[in-house]
Specification:
The complex is a heterodimer. By secondary structure, chain A is of the alpha+beta class. Chain A contains eleven helices and 19 strands. Chain B has one domain: Immunoglobulin-like, CATH 2.60.40. Chain B is built from five helices and 14 strands. In chain B, strands 1, 2, 3, 4, 5, 6, 7, 8, 9, 10, 11, 12, 13 and 14 form a 14-stranded mixed beta sheet that branches. The radius of gyration of chain B is 23 Å and the shape is globular.
């Protein structure tokens, strides 16, 4: 197929896409700190009870959490895609391999891995499975020998969405105001080209309505200046939802830009697919860097190093405590010696959090109440 | 330089013949007759005796080759068509071999199907594949899913996955007298296709859907005007009949006139191969049906 060439900053080069460049005014994004996710599935349930509690949506998790390396929803979504794409190369920070659009057969728009019914039927198969057997006398070192980590995922509301490019009748659109990708429920005819084509498998077919659905990026909340349900309900405070700029327009005081572009701590998921997806991950420090590079690109090793030095980095430390500290989308932030501050679009302060929580040490024996106390941190 | 000129001339000839052969493709690839019979064409059954007296035309089908994605191969490569009319209604009876019946929706289960396409206006004749802008085509689309819906009731997630267990749907939660009961409209909010009024999400009386198209990707469902159909799968073969009035009031519908030829094109989907949308078998060009 005759493809357009569009600039993909995650690959450091122009890449093939079905349509010409059409970046939105703002681009929705979520950053996930994988070091803090405990797979409690509160995000999955927050999403499910808000958006997918209807008939035909029983199996749908627009937000899900799986255990890597073996888990996946649908099962094998990433392994299936990677094995079809085959071995590809990065040259430094430039991707010289083929993206899914570039690897498409000449009669297709995109290389596809199609998930079967059975792949969708176990949303958390492989939970807590580690990558190796635990041997007698094993002990924990970093990175772990027998490792695993949790991978929470939503739709990435990609800059170059495969679902949108694949839809034969333009029933999928990307909103100019926030970059959120939606399936027009009145226009969709249930062909499932989006379901086949999304490599992240976040377009899903509803048997009851016979058309496809996907994560809507909580656009009614975004329109109110609030973060998504999966973000605000995260009890581990691992998420930050906001707007990401292109590298040339990045603002140091935008918390999302700062983590992605300035510090390169948050990396996109499988950038080699070529969709410029907008869910970004702070990689887990205890997993092998080679695996993290396959999943998050060549910056994974440096990101792990940066994360391990956060304790000596007041700005990053401050920014990390802003995660999960408020419902409002932060367009700006500032960190001083004691506090981290978050600002809305107009520059009004919406949150102020101590960088280090104050600690109070109480006497072991309280004379006034005549009780003994343990200081449990 | 001379060589360049020769190459240019050669290229021109090559292009000219290419265009000519593309023009050739626009021509009619097959003709068949819709016989005039004094049998009620609006009510004729799938296996009524009348069909034994009507010659059948075997027509080739090929992979859809104009719009991406283009299937490399298709499940159905030949079909038969018969037709007759009674002066008021016209009926088409299609049959083709398909060893698998695909009649129910699942996440990655696709429906068997067939469609007839006619131009809304014969002159100028629209592009044979899905019509073109301002030159609409009228499509009659049968889906095996709808046939089963009609027989067994609208298939739901429960019929697709009978062993599924669900704790509770929150819109079904009710305690009498405390305002927790929901109206159907309130419940439908939880079924987005229904809430958006998508025609695919509702049960229909008829197994045939009528649509207009002005080019690939512009398909639009419209109201049925006395069109009906029947379908049967037996011994590895689908037989489907489409019945409709020769003329209806809707200006975007095909009009059949006795004594005239009507262009027609066909599509067949093999659900087992996950064929849907442009992944389908199509006729190589317009065919023509002579209405007696």
């Amino acid at each position: 197929m005759q493809m357009r060439k569009v600039y993909n900053w995650q690959l450091g080069r122009k890449a093939a896409y079905v349509y010409p460049l059409g970046r939105p005014k703002k681009q929705w994004a979520i950053i996930f700190d994988l070091n803090k996710c405990i797979s409690c599935q509160t995000c999955s349930l927050a999403c499910k009870t808000t958006w997918t509690s209807g008939r035909g949506q029983e199996y749908m998790f627009w937000n899900n959490v799986a255990t890597k390396p073996y888990g996946g929803y649908p099962q094998g979504w990433d392994m299936g895609m990677l094995s079809k794409l085959g071995l590809q190369e990065w040259d430094g920070n430039k991707y010289i391999g083929k993206t899914l659009f570039e690897a498409a057969a000449k009669n297709e728009k995109i290389l596809q891995h199609v998930a079967d019914d059975k792949d969708w039927s176990h949303p958390n198969l492989g939970e807590d499975e580690v990558a190796a057997a635990i041997e007698r006398g094993d002990w924990i070192r970093i990175p772990h020998r027998a490792w695993m980590f949790y991978l929470p995922r939503t739709c990435g509301h990609c800059t170059y969405p495969a679902c949108l490019g694949a839809c034969p009748r333009k029933a999928i659109y990307k909103r100019e105001e926030d970059g959120i990708v939606l399936i027009d429920q009145s226009r969709c005819r249930g062909y499932r080209e989006c379901v086949r084509s999304c490599p992240y498998k976040k377009s899903m077919f509803n048997v009851e309505t016979r058309i496809s659905e996907k994560c809507i990026g909580c656009y009614p909340k975004i329109e109110q200046g609030e973060m998504t349900q999966c973000t605000t309900n995260c009890i581990g405070k691992i998420r930050l939802n906001g707007f990401v700029s292109t590298p040339d327009n990045a603002r140091k005081d935008n918390p999302i830009d700062y983590l992605i572009h300035e510090r390169k701590l948050a990396l996109s998921l499988y950038p080699q697919f070529g969709l410029e997806t907008n869910i970004y991950y702070i990689p887990p420090v205890h997993a092998p860097v080679a695996y993290l590079e396959q999943m998050f690109g060549p910056g994974a090793g440096a990101a792990v190093q940066t994360y391990r030095s956060i304790r000596d980095d007041q700005t990053l430390k401050g920014l990390m405590v802003l995660f999960g500290s408020m419902e409002k989308v932060l367009h700006g932030f500032k960190v001083d010696n004691s506090f981290a501050y978050g600002y809305d679009e107009k520059g009004n302060e919406v949150v102020k959090v101590p960088v280090t929580e104050p600690m109070y040490i109480r006497d072991f024996y309280d004379k006034k109440l005549n009780v003994y106390r343990h200081n449990t941190p | 330089m001379v060589l360049k000129k020769i190459i240019c001339v050669w290229m021109f000839l090559f292009l000219a013949t290419g265009v000519a052969s593309a023009e050739g493709k626009k021509k009619i690839f097959a003709e068949f007759v819709s016989y005039h019979k004094s049998v009620d064409a609006a009510k004729v059954g799938l296996n009524d005796d009348i069909w034994k007296s009507i010659p059948s035309s075997r027509l080739p089908l090929q992979r859809q080759f104009l719009v991406f994605p283009k299937p490399m191969d298709v499940g159905v490569k030949e079909m038969s068509v018969q037709s007759f009319n009674d002066g008021k209604y016209i009926t088409f009876r299609l049959s083709w071999k398909d060893s698998t019946q695909n009649t129910g929706p699942k996440l990655m289960d696709f429906s068997d199907g067939a469609a007839l396409q006619f131009p809304v206006n014969k002159k100028p004749l629209p592009e044979y594949f899905m019509g073109e802008e301002k030159r609409p085509v009228h499509i009659l689309h049968w889906k095996a899913w709808r046939s089963r819906d009609k027989q067994e009731g609208f298939q739901t997630v429960k019929s697709a996955y009978p062993n599924m267990t669900v704790d509770m749907y929150n819109f079904d939660y009710k305690v009498k007298g405390v305002g927790t009961e929901k109206t159907q409209a309130e419940k439908d909010i939880f079924t987005p296709g229904k809430a958006a009024g998508n025609p695919l999400s509702f049960d229909h009386k008829e197994i045939i859907e009528e649509l207009n198209s002005e080019g690939a990707g512009t398909l639009k469902s419209k109201n049925i005007e006395n069109t009906s159909g029947d379908a049967e799968w037996k011994d590895g073969q689908w037989t489907v009949i489409f019945r409709r009035p020769l003329t209806v009031s809707d200006p975007l519908s095909a009009r059949f006139v006795a004594g005239e030829k009507m262009p027609v094109a066909f599509s067949v989907w093999e659900g087992e191969r996950r064929e849907s949308a442009g992944r389908k078998a199509v006729s190589p060009a317009w065919a023509e049906v002579k209405v007696e």
